[in-house]
Amino acid sequence: MTSQKIKEGDYVLIYLNPRKTYLVKVEAGKNFHTHKGFIKFDDLIGKGYGCTVKSNLDVKFVALKPLLRDYIMKSVRRTQINYPKDIALIVMFSGIGPGSCVVEAGTGTGALTTALAHYVQPKGKVYSYEIREEFLKVAEKNLKRAGLAEFVELKKGDVTAGIEEKDVDAVILDLATPWLVVPHAYDALKPCGTIVSFSPTIDQVVKTVEALKENGFVDIRTVECLMRQMQVERGKTRPQTLMTGHTGYITFARKATKTN
Amino acid sequence: MTSQKIKEGDYVLIYLNPRKTYLVKVEAGKNFHTHKGFIKFDDLIGKGYGCTVKSNLDVKFVALKPLLRDYIMKSVRRTQINYPKDIALIVMFSGIGPGSCVVEAGTGTGALTTALAHYVQPKGKVYSYEIREEFLKVAEKNLKRAGLAEFVELKKGDVTAGIEEKDVDAVILDLATPWLVVPHAYDALKPCGTIVSFSPTIDQVVKTVEALKENGFVDIRTVECLMRQMQVERGKTRPQTLMTGHTGYITFARKATKTN
Amino acid sequence: MTSQKIKEGDYVLIYLNPRKTYLVKVEAGKNFHTHKGFIKFDDLIGKGYGCTVKSNLDVKFVALKPLLRDYIMKSVRRTQINYPKDIALIVMFSGIGPGSCVVEAGTGTGALTTALAHYVQPKGKVYSYEIREEFLKVAEKNLKRAGLAEFVELKKGDVTAGIEEKDVDAVILDLATPWLVVPHAYDALKPCGTIVSFSPTIDQVVKTVEALKENGFVDIRTVECLMRQMQVERGKTRPQTLMTGHTGYITFARKATKTN
Amino acid sequence: MTSQKIKEGDYVLIYLNPRKTYLVKVEAGKNFHTHKGFIKFDDLIGKGYGCTVKSNLDVKFVALKPLLRDYIMKSVRRTQINYPKDIALIVMFSGIGPGSCVVEAGTGTGALTTALAHYVQPKGKVYSYEIREEFLKVAEKNLKRAGLAEFVELKKGDVTAGIEEKDVDAVILDLATPWLVVPHAYDALKPCGTIVSFSPTIDQVVKTVEALKENGFVDIRTVECLMRQMQVERGKTRPQTLMTGHTGYITFARKATKTN
Question: What is the pTM of this model?
Answer without folding.
Answer: 0.94
